[in-house]
Amino acid sequence: MEEAKDQLRASEISYSGDVVGGIDLQGGFIFYPVGSAVVTESTTTMESLRFGDAKVSCLALSKDGKIGAVGKTTAMGLEAELCIWDVAAKKLTQRCLLHKGQVRAVSFSKCGALLASIGGADDNSLIIWEVGTGKPLCGAPVSASAVAFFNTDSERRNFTTLDISKDDRFLYAGSTSGDVAEEIRVWNVDSRRELLRIRLPGVDCLCLAITKDGSSIIAGCSDGFLRVWRIGASSQTMIMSLKEHKGAINRIAVGRLHPQDCITASSDGSCILWDLTTLKRKCTMSANAFFKDAAWSSDESQLVTAGTDRKLTHWDCYTGESIRELEASASEPMLSAAVNPGGTILASGAADRIVKLWRYDEGTCFAAGDRHTGEVRRCVFSPDGRTLVTADSHGALMFWDVPMLSEDKVSDSCPAA
After folding, report:
1. What is the CA 368 to chain-centroid distance, rounded?
2. WD repeats: which residues (predicted)?
């Protein structure tokens, strides 16, 4: 028999295979769990890291391979550990305790700053952790066996519009960036679960509204189309797609007293009053400006628009004629407008970061606030009219106490609110 020649032998590892994400390759090293330990192995070395005595149930490494995370299994009803460690230093950095019984799966965000974890059958919860501090940021009840960050292109979603149905059952979100750039997502507010997605390929949803009965979603899009969907328990049907605007639709306002009426404000310099029952245009208001916002008067006989011409313009909804123009800013575009429930006060926000309150009938400014650091893009009154909420381009929300109007004559100047 010929003498046996030297045989080439491949490295071999063994593990049970029941650990979620139980093997990972980063930077020439293989990571895998054995019992309560995590083994780090290269072609020349093998090391074992142990984080307590509980068995490892899941394993994940950050995208850059610098941070690792392991979940543990413990007895029913007891806290299950989620351990985060520095791979290079081989040092435990955070020990997170919120799950019960088992941490079933873990996943890092693209930048490695966030970690998602899912509990086992006795826990049924999703938790998002801040990796640097080990603090839980948010959570939700789920029943799942795996988790991953779907938004791989951007760590921040740029939601441009939100609305809640009148019965507080559904939350609707529209976005122009991230993984929902061309989607409308419907959520159950109580359970915080996503119920439905409406996809808009190649189109950004810039604004949306909900009909009074909560049965339909109305979306204004970057292509100038007004789209309406009838919403079911788990489905949607588009019932209208109208193209009258030549520019992006920036705001939709559905009538409260006349829910069949809908106003759209567009960058093409027009506002259109729609009849949602006949699916036809009732009236058009036009100006030499981009309309950024539109608000109904309390009796819905008039409309107020905010435009890039620095004006707040009052319109007659029956004739489409301009009634009054207010020079609302000295130098910057007007971006938002709202009328209080009593119909006596008009609120405005502009790119100059100033919030103003106006007497609706007289057109005089009686209060102003300059607390914002970014463009004031949204104004909303509370149902009782006592509070005004404003939002700016930096993501800040401001809550303003609305002063009561007196019978005294108000100066044309704007004292600070």
Report:
1. 29
2. 295-325, 327-368, 369-402
